[in-house]
Amino acid sequence: MTESCKKALGGSPACKLGELTKWVQCSGGRCDTVPSAKPEPPSKTKIMVVVKAPDNKDTITIGKGRNVEKLGELLDLATIALSDVYVTGLVKCCPPKRPPSVQEIKFCSGHLADELKAVDPDVVILMGAATLRAFNLMGEGGVNKLHGKIIEKAFPHDDTNDKVYKLMVTTDPNALYMNPDPRLQGTMVKDLILAKAVVEGGLVNPDQQDVDYKLIEDKYDLAWMIGEIKEKGMFAFDSESRGLPWSEQPLICLQFCWGYDQPRRTVAVLPLYNHDPDGTDWKLKPTWDHHGREMVIEMLKEIFEDPNIPKVAHNIKYDMCVMRKHLGIETKGFLFDTLLMHHILWEHPPHDLEYLADLELNTGNYSKGVHDITGHGRVLRNTYDHVPDKILHPYGAKDAESTYRLFCRYYSRLKALPEQWKLYTDEVHPFIRTMMKAEWRGTCLSTDVIDTLTKEFMKEQAALSVSLKERTWPEFNGDKSDDVAKAIIQAGYGRDIESPKTTKGYSTDKSKLLPLIKKLPIVEEFMRYRSLTKLISTYMNNAKDMSGATDGRARISVLLHGTVNGRPSCGFLHQIPRLDRERIKKGLGNLRDMFIAQEGYSLVYGDYSMIELVVLAIKSGDENMMEIFRSGQDIHKATAAQFVGLEDHEVCAHNRDLAKPVNFSRVYGAVEGRSLLKLTWMDLEGNEWPVTKEMIQAGYAALDERFPAAGTYFINTVSEISANAGIHITPFGRVKHMGSTLNSGNKWARENAERQAVNGTIQSPAASVTIRTLNAMNVYLEEQIKAGVMTEEEAALIITVHDSGLFEVKNEHLGWFEDKLREIASRPVPQLNDWCFTMKVGIGQSWSEAELNAK
Question: Mind telling me which residue stretches traverse the membrane in this protein (predicted)?
Fold first, then answer.
């Protein structure tokens, strides 16, 4: 056993990790250390279970600690005798509300090595992502990819032990508290049963059953497949492209499935390219000559463009774009998206196809052969053209079959839930087509604006770097948390950034730095330096890459399942800062200036700017709030008056701007108001004063007094959802499952769940209103196209972010388009008391200009 582990088990005084982390109690001597799983030397046991750490400073024994209690339930369901199990932790102490650090794992690896030798298990079960570090399994795809099979590997942290252990990976038992999905529990039990089988019979990895698919090699094969699909009357399909984006990368093959467990084949793979290891730019060669490819396209149109044949796919929006781009085929008929069907049934991620197939169908890690070549994630080691046909085709066939089988399950479940099925048909299904068209259209990005902003940000950051180094030390790097922490500690404010929840014992995130600005002004410059890094690396560089598309239009993918509340999300769009009017006054640009209209067109921006506050008023029944909206008064001005203690007519623009984050912090359930501490308010003489904690508390109390129903709504909502087993259903039929977290004994988890509960009841209905407005506008535009008023290219949605939409419209259509958008946006919404929401609309040559003109 290592000396550090002996100290850990002995509970010696906390060791020091250097100046920056001197208040950290590391696992080499943490004061809250615990004994090992069994105080006496462990003996031979059949199964060794490794969890990440003890719970709540308790020993790791069955029946003690929430994590291990849940493990005991799982073992019981798998009929594994507790006498056959030895449970230990990756580390031997309880890290404060965080996973164990690499350093802590290293400190405890010696003890784990001793346990492995003494227990000599037939199988080792690693529970949760953190425990993968015990055997250096990081980077192998995570728990979702590794579970359900046997991995053979020696313990890498002990040179004296060369035994090869049989390893099983499964989910952390704690996941069942946050995600109480019975199917997830079933998968974990299956993993444990497999471990039991290894012990009892020496079972090796179960072979995944290959799909019996037909390879389409000529027109006769294709005619057979088309005939089978027409006879069935529906089909599932999947596409394999070389990589991303779909607009630039070739389509390699298509896979189809129209049945399962039938006496004849119901799966087919149609290659458009074949793997060619000698290829230059692409490792591909065409499967068909020009005439053959044209024949394939015409035959596929018979099923894809038949509106009477429903189509099934996983993330079908992507496949529809691929079909149109590379084959010129429109996907018509009713669309069943298994990803979005699952999102309605269970909103919590993951939603990827292979995970769901394994969860529902026990398909295992069938993509291993492909990902051994390509790697994992969005940035691949190799593109899909490097995958041989003998690996890619079975993988694609399994994708198609899994999609079909998931559809069969999800369809029956949704149909049994009338509200959720109506949500799919009335909102989600039409939104697929709305957003497919937006992504297909793309948006123009100005390279001139991108270059100008990039140069400005880089120049400002360079000057700021020089200034910070002069006031700290020559090697100071504002992007390094350690350097920022060291500078704060040297200034005498180390206690202000202490954070026992983190590995290093300190935190330099926004929540810690904001309250420090008034004490230590240089902190604001640290934050600005970081902000500039993000602007340059996340936005400007990505925007530059996207602006280089072949046709000059950037395709920005929006995830329709990106949030648990049903609001679409886009990592690029959602983080772009709102318009900074101070920069505009100085003649400087905004990031939204990048988005421009093509020649002869304008951008039309429509925004439900305060829809969440209106939803709060409607849902809470607060008459005072609703009267403000009915009469066209300014809710932000009313809030500012209460918050700073003035009359409504005395509120200046400065104080009104302060009210915006006040209002939305309440909507988002973040009533602590930490972000307000860096702001100021203005008295009647024009003097600026800092916002204080006392002012925030008094301000919120005043708001509750003026808007009492809204104030009690936050409390009542949490109680109602908690009493309903953590389940909430919106007026539009979207279900949110909070599980037991609203009653958690963990204060942080409970408060976070309360914020999510409040936010979900407001944000989800607001998202539904916006989505249905965009859908209705899309339907109207389709009618105008059919009537010959315009073509598809002359007016289209190109972007949606938060509760707004940005359209690109040919100038000759601007008049009727603006009027129709306002009309559709203000239609009565029956699910919300027939309220008529107001959308601000503006027109301009850029997103910024259109937004500035919105009224």
Answer: none
Q: Enter the DSSP assignment of 446.
A: -
Strand partners, 843: 604
Cβ–Cβ under 8 Å, residues 341 and 314: no
For position 62, what pLDDT does the model report?
Answer: 45
pLDDT for 174 beyond 90: no
What amino acid occupies position 136? N
What's the rounded Cα separation, in Å, for the pair 695 and 645?
A: 10
**Residue 467, SS3?**
helix
User: Is the same domain home to 176 and 280?
Assistant: no
Which of 301 and 711 is assigned the larger pLDDT?
301
Residue 607 placed within a domain: no
Residue 638 tokens, joined: 């009313």
Q: Could you give the number of structural domains in the chain?
A: 4
Beta-strand ranges (E) seen in 524-650 are 553-554, 595-596, 601-607
Q: Decide if 86 contacts 37 (C-beta within 8 A).
A: yes
How far apart (Å, rounded) are the C-alpha atoms in residues 749 and 740? 10
Specify the pLDDT at position 347.
93
Q: Are residues 254 and 117 in the same domain?
A: no
**684 shares its domain with 543:** no
What are residue 810's DSSP bridge partners? 601
Query: What tokens does 67 get?
Result: 């994590």
**How many of the other CB atoms lie within 10 Å of CB of 474?**
6
Flag the least confident range among 489-493, 498-502, 575-579, 691-695.
Answer: 498-502
Residues 142 and 280 in one domain: no
Rounded to two decimals, the pTM is 0.84
Buried b (16+ CB within 10 A) or exposed e, 664-682: ebbbbbbbbbebbbbbebb
Q: For CA atoms 479, 132, 161, 9, give the dihedral sign.
A: positive
Per-residue pLDDT of 99-135, as tens digits, reads 787 777 887 888 888 889 888 999 999 999 999 999 9
Rounded CA-CA distance 687/625 in Å is 30
Identify whether residues 334 and 410 lie together within a single domain: yes
Domain boundaries, position 158: 3-201
Examine residue 116 and state whether it is found in any structural domain, yes or no. Answer: yes
Residue the block writes with tokens 């939104």: 431
pLDDT at 669: 64
For residues 22 and 162, membership in a common domain is answered with yes
CATH number at residue 350: 3.30.420.10
Cα separation, 780 vs 808, in Å, equals 15
Please identify, among 741, 764, 787, the residue that sits at the C-terminal boundary of a domain. Answer: 764
Number of Cβ within a 10 Å radius of residue 710 = 22
Domain boundary among 178, 201, 224: 201
Residue 440: what pLDDT? 96
Any idea what DSSP says for residue 729? E
Answer whether residue 839 is part of any domain. Answer: no
Number of H helices, E strands in the chain: 31, 26
Same domain, 175 and 223: no
Q: Is 280 exposed, middle or buried (0-12, 13-18, 19+ CB in 10 A)?
A: exposed
The answer to whether position 734 is within a domain reads yes
